[in-house]
Amino acid sequence: MSVPSALTAGLWARDESSPRTPTRRHYLMCPPEYFTVEYSINPWMDPDTPVDTDLAMAQWRSLKAAYERLGHTVEVVEPQPGLPDMVFSANSATVIDGRVLGARFRAAERAAEAEHFRRWFSARGYRELIMPSRINEAEGDFAWTGELLLAGSGFRTDPEAHAEAQEALGVPVISLQLTDPRYYHLDTALFVLETGPQPQIAYYPQAFSAGSLKVLERLFPGAVLGSAADAECLGLNGVSDGRHVVLPLEATDLAGQLEKRGYEPVLLDVSELRKSGGGPKCCTMEIHT
Ligand code: ARG
């Protein structure tokens, strides 16, 4: 017997294409005032490719303006000369329930960034502030779903940093193994679309080991899967408020899939920042309060 679809939709599931409800977010960003590509610590970075710092700044400003237009709070950390990657603020702390777990970078070139961010939190009265003893590139490798902390390793964050994060933040951690050097941080291959009791994510399956992929399939059977083209423009480095999803301009496959599910893609040009292997999410630390 067939059941009227409007009835089943009402009783059993949301209408996938109806608009979703956003929630207000709190972000921490750092302007790319000293942005360059002068060393190479990931396959995207070629020090011989010229970088236009003014263009990077213009792209960063439109990202910040997009968040503000959507009603989110954006705070800013003072950029520092000699730290060209400081624009990627997501790498400098993981903040959950007001508890701050700082960063410890793998590359010597980025090591000093961690202390600038630690001071920012300390000056603003964050009392529960822990600095990790293991290599920990923060939201580059940690994604909070509101229930679980998805944690990547393979290229940057030490697997032991996952257990350290679980202790420091008091949240359950799910360890995931990255296998493709182009997707060196978890946030280059996965992002959280929807937080809360029924979280949802988008990811690029080919970036994960076979076992980790099974874990993701088990936890998120309805996840949005990015295509190779989406991954190649760092389209999986998105930022979602539950409805609006900020993505690189070129992530058109992903944008189409998200629209069908009731999300509103906000496409931005971040081409200059991509020369360093970063996209919208890398430039955006979320302060989960
Ligand atoms: N050039 C930077 C690095 O390789 C880019 C970091 C991008 N950030 C991120 N959250 N994935 O460390």
What does this structure look like?
The chain is α/β, with parallel strands linked by helices and 289 residues long. It has one domain (23-288): L-arginine/glycine Amidinotransferase, Chain A. It is built from eight helices and 15 strands. The chain has helices at 5-12, 53-69, 113-123, 159-169, 210-219, 228-232, 252-260, 271-274; strands at residues 26-29, 73-76, 93-96, 99-102, 129-130, 142-144, 149-153, 173-177, 190-194, 200-203, 224-225, 239-240, 244-248, 264-268, 285-286. Helix 5 (210-219) links the parallel strand 10 (200-203) and strand 11. It starts with a helix and ends with a strand. Residues 41-42, 45, 85, 88, 90-91, 110, 140, 185, 187-188, 276-278, 282 line the site of arginine. GO terms for molecular function: hydrolase activity. This is N-dimethylarginine dimethylaminohydrolase. It comes from Halopolyspora algeriensis.
Can you describe this structure in just a few lines?
With 289 residues, the chain is α/β, with parallel strands linked by helices. The protein is 26% helix and 19% strand. Arginine binds next to loops.
Strand order of the largest sheet: 2-1-15
The sequence of SSEs as H and E is HEHEEEHEEEHEEEHEHEEHEHE
Largest beta-sheet details:
3 strands, mixed
Q: Between the first and last Cα atoms, what is the distance in angstroms?
A: 48 Å
CATH level 1 class label: Alpha Beta
Per DSSP, what share of the residues sits in E-state strands of 2 or more residues? 15-25%
Low-pLDDT residue intervals, each spanning 5 or more residues: 1-11
CATH topology: L-arginine/glycine Amidinotransferase, Chain A
Helical content class: 25-40%
State the helix count.
8
Number of domains: 1
Overall shape: it is globular
Oligomeric grouping of the chains: single chain
GO molecular function: hydrolase activity
Protein name: N-dimethylarginine dimethylaminohydrolase
Organism: Halopolyspora algeriensis
Keywords: Hydrolase
